[in-house]
Amino acid sequence: MTTSRTIRHTIAAVRTLEGGGFVVHRPFPTRMLMDFDPFLLLDEMGPIDYAPGEAKGAPDHPHRGFETVTYMLEGSFAHKDSAGHRGVLRPGDVQWMTAGAGVVHSEMPDPAFARAGGRVHGLQLWVNLPRRDKMIEPRYQEMPSERIPTASTSDGKVRVKVIAGEALGVKAAIETRTPILYQHFTLQPGASIVQPVPSAYRVFAYPLSGTGRYGDEQREIGAQRMVIFGDDGDAVTLSAGDEPLEVLLIGGVPLNEPVVRHGPFVMNTEDEIRQAIVDYQAGRMGEIAH
Questions:
Q1: Which spans of this chain does the record mark as coiled coil (predicted)?
Q2: For residues 288 and 276, what is the distance between their CA atoms, to the nearest angstrom?
Q3: Which H or E run contains 82?
Q4: What pLDDT was estimated at residue 47?
Q5: Binding-site residue positions for Fe cation
Q6: Of all helices (H) and strands (E), which one includes residue 277?
Q7: Rounded Cα distance, 1 and 3, in Å
Q8: Element (H or E) spanning 278, and its range?
Q9: I want to staple 108 with a disulfide (CB 3.0 to 4.6 A). Which of 57, 74, 94, 148 is the partner?
Q10: DSSP element (H, E) containing 248
Q11: pLDDT tens, 88-141?
Q12: What is the pLDDT of residues 147-192, one digit of tens each?
């Protein structure tokens, strides 16, 4: 018999500026919640409308010891790194970057988009790497929207885009270093879904738009508020109210390892952080050819 998890608590996303000055809504890390093992950060970029020439991004910056997952909903970003990778993320695309031992990365508005202006809306999730994988070779998984598996319920009232994990009988195409689920559900008014979640996973929902009802208690919660579920069941219940609901369901198996972070470096010890800084300053993570 399936048991739906209850809600442990909720956390409102905090509006702040990141990178070159672009607006993000951040449920963690904040003073209310530093991390959600195995996740280190969730930023909702925008939604914000830019006039021609106004769009901002994140110029050259290093990473070591974790993964960044960028999911574009609107707008487009051009990315480059010190290993020579480059490309453009467009609406619906996902980039799963495993920084590992270290890479210098930039994420800036695509030049054509920057010239014309428009709306930017997307998500960036930081996924911690276990100690054994902290210093692996950097890797990219570029997943255009059309290659990301989707599924719907038989009545068509619930649709899911499966970025990681499995939902409605469909498995993700992206490979993860540890067990993770990352799913984008769209529910029509009045629709409901009971999504299985392995008991070992910590899991939360992040509503993008619409007021939904969550958990075994079906508590009504609005957008841009992180809904943290307890570990008291093997499924999560998501329901739409009188309007469509767009919500992310994200979870993973905790690493239960020490976390020492210094800006874009996340390691297990202070010595490893000091070494990351030395390596970056010495140019060992390379530089981006612009």
A1: none
A2: 18
A3: none
A4: 93
A5: 61, 63, 105, 107
A6: helix 270-281
A7: 7
A8: helix 270-281
A9: 57
A10: strand 245-252
A11: 999 999 999 999 999 999 999 888 998 999 999 999 999 999 999 999 999 999
A12: 999 999 999 999 999 999 999 999 999 999 999 999 999 999 999 9
Question: Smallest Cα–Cα separation from 207: which of 151, 123, 127, 150?
Answer: 123
Residue 263 burial (CB < 10 Å; 0-12/13-18/19+)?
exposed
46 and 13 Cβ atoms separated by less than 8 Å: no
For 57-88, b/e burial (b = at least 16 CB within 10 A) is bbeeebbbbbbbbbbbbbbbbbbbbbbebeee
Nearest to 203 by CA among 253, 167, 129, 238: 253
Both tokens of 280, joined, read 């970056």
Q: Could you write out the three-class secondary structure of 172-231?
A: CCCCCCCCEEEEEEEECCCCEEEEECCCCCEEEEEEEECCEEECCCCEEECCCEEEEECC
Place of tokens 């996303």: 13
- Do the Cβ atoms of 202 and 231 come closer than 8 Å? yes
Degrees (nearest 5) of the Cα angle 105, 137, 264?
40
- Look at the alpha carbons of 31, 36, 40, 42 in this order and tell me if their dihedral is positive or negative: negative
Task: Report the alpha-carbon distance of residue 248 to residue 181 in Å, rounded.
Answer: 10
Specify the pLDDT at position 110.
Answer: 87
d(CA 283, CA 38): 29
**Binding-site residues from annotation:** 61, 63, 105, 107
Q: What is the CATH number of domain 7-252?
A: 2.60.120.10
For 161, what's the count of Cα atoms within 13 Å in the CB-facing half-sphere?
Answer: 18
